[in-house]
Amino acid sequence: MIIREVETTMTKRISCLRLIPVAVGLIFMAVPIESQATPITINNVTVNVGSTAFSLWTFPVTLLDGQTLVLTQNNPAVPASDGGRFNFDTSDVGATPATVPTVNVSSSIGAFLASDTFKVLSVNGVEAAAPGGPTFNEAQPYRVLGSFGGGSLEISVAYADNAHSNACGSGAVSSGLIGEPNCLPSPFNGNGGTTAATFFQGLPGPAGPASSFPNHCAVGTTTCWDAGVVLIRNTSAVIPVIPEPSTLFLLGTGLFGVAGWKWRRRSKTSA
Question: Per residue in 237-264, is it b (16+ CB within 10 Å) or e — as a string?
Answer without folding.
Answer: eebeeeeeeeebeebbeebbeebeeeee
